[in-house]
Amino acid sequence: MFGAFRASHVNLGGLLWKTPWKLSPTRKANARARLKKVDAVIEAVRASGIQCHSLDRALELPKEHEMPAKDKYTIFTPHAAGYRKGHS
Asked: Transmembrane segments in this chain: where (predicted)?
């Protein structure tokens, strides 16, 4: 009906968007690099002397090297069994 955007069993079944149960070493390294960049930004804002509620909350969070692997490589979701889902 919609040409290239027509529905198919593969598209509707979600097979194109499954997240793997185990991350590859490359994807783990990329996730760690993103967390380190976030830590660097938080540290730069703290060093600039700006004070705000958001910064106070961000400083309470653990840094990348302090986080357990469960928190680094999974995301909380109330809808999944075990309340965790993998990174996409």
From this structure: none
- What is the tens place of the pLDDT at every residue in 26-57? 999 999 999 999 999 999 999 999 999 999 99
The pTM for the full model equals 0.72
Please, are residues 39 and 67 in contact by the beta-carbon 8 Å criterion? Answer: no
Residue 65's domain comprises 3-86
Distance from C-alpha of 31 to C-alpha of 87, rounded to nearest angstrom:
9
Instruction: Find all residues with CB under 8 Å of 27, minimum gap 6, and list them.
Output: 87
Tell me if residue 38 falls in helix, strand or coil: helix
Quote the number of domains for the chain.
1
